[in-house]
Amino acid sequence: MFKKSEKDSVENDTVNSDSEEKNTVESESEKLQENASEENDVDVREKKKLLKKLKNKFVTGVLCGVTFTLIITFGSAYIYSYATGRYFVFKANNKMRVGNEILDNKSMDKINELRTYMDLYYYKGYDADKVKNSMYSGIVAGLGDKYSTYYTKEEYKAFKQESAGEYCGIGTQVTQDPNDKSIRITKVYDGSPASQGGLKEGDIIKKVNEKDVSKQELAKVAQDLRGKENTKVKVEVFRKEENKNISVELTRKKLELPSVTYKVLNGNIGYIAITEFQDKTDEQFKDAIDNLKKQNVKGFIFDVRSNPGGMLNSVVSMLNNVLPKGVVVYTKDKYGNKEVARSDGKNRLDYPITVLINGESASASEIFAGAIKDYKYGTIIGEKSFGKGIVQSIFKLEDGDAIKITTARYYTPNGHYIHGKGIKPDIGVKLDIEAQKDGYDINKDNQVQKAIEVLDEKINGK
């Protein structure tokens, strides 16, 4: 069984060891920029000397900072993986040649050269921190992996809050298309500012506070939507069915959003919708099952449609409350190391089960549906899932920033690697969108109704 993740708290601002060097460089840069505007009064040789001096100082500052980071990160004894719940030992051996391969002398010279031209000729001042953060993000983007990203300290804090299901914002669940980067609202919570302001599921977020966010990373847009309680945020969305942009101003408020909702359908069927696999989703899931059992349900529908995934530990814990004893998922990293998560079988759910999936059921949702399918423990209904068979781990950096990178592939209990393939339902049912044109009605949801039909047949022994 994967160990339960424990999230680190975000530390306070740390002292930058090369801040004094940076200030010296910036003052030299300002001096040089002033002189550059008076070209006729500057001796060319003196200018070249000053440029060389600037160059040397900047290289020293960056290399000191980088060396410090590498020693702390790769020289320290342990790094904790949120995805697997394990500590990994890193040593400075031949496999960890990060400094030599990325930040070699040639690369540092080029970074230094770019900075020099920016200081000399960029027509106005710039924010050095933003430039550095863009550089860090660019390094991660260089992996060519759309699921790996760099977080600033603020973005990391927002990410943790969202994973915990508690935050101050407008009350929406959003997902990002990995291909065109568009951000779509997948759920609007009842009573939330978004609901009261008229936002709907399916709306594409175009702008936040007049800033175009159509190509921004999901975490950054989510951070823009959040903010202090009672502050206002202007959101512009594109509504496809009306073929127009809609702009609303919302007032943020503190929200604790459940990732599990449940009800009784048809008098004897327990329906549980799981919108995301967060820190407390496994607890909410168990409570939902227990409460529905008390209402004497005879079967269960687990709805993970449009669920983008979430925490591996959470879905493993949930499957431990459903499946018999055995493997529920396993992962392999690039070194061939294998980690296996198992159910102990003590809390197996001895009821007829159906699982609803669609093309936006991804990652942890596919682990959930894939395990139930492999065990033939329930009937999978709906449309083929997204096909994300890889795991990301989050590593907190020394200064409070963080990096999320893909660290392993995962496999269903029978060894299926579903990345790029998805999970095919046992019974294919395309959602009747036309039936929901006047607003969602579960009684008109043909996928849910098919699940009820299948469960009725099992319950009544047909």
TrEMBL record:
SUPFAM superfamilies: ClpP/crotonase (SSF52096), PDZ domain-like (SSF50156). GO terms for cellular component: outer membrane-bounded periplasmic space. Gene3D superfamilies: 2-enoyl-CoA Hydratase, Chain A, domain 1, 2.30.42.10, 3.30.750.44. Residues 1-40 are annotated as: Disordered. InterPro entries: ClpP/crotonase-like_dom_sf (IPR029045), PDZ (IPR001478), PDZ_sf (IPR036034), Peptidase_S41A (IPR004447), Tail-specific_protease (IPR005151). Keywords: Hydrolase, Membrane, Protease, Serine protease, Transmembrane, Transmembrane helix. GO terms for biological process: proteolysis; signal transduction. The chain crosses the membrane at residues 58-80. Residues 156-226 form the PDZ domain. PROSITE patterns: PDZ (PS50106). GO terms for molecular function: endopeptidase activity; serine-type peptidase activity. Pfam families: PDZ (PF00595), Peptidase_S41 (PF03572). It comes from the Bacteria. Residues 1-10, 19-33 have a biased composition (Basic and acidic residues). Belongs to the peptidase S41A family. This is Carboxyl-terminal processing protease. It comes from Lachnobacterium bovis DSM 14045. The lineage of its organism: Bacteria, Bacillati, Bacillota, Clostridia, Lachnospirales.
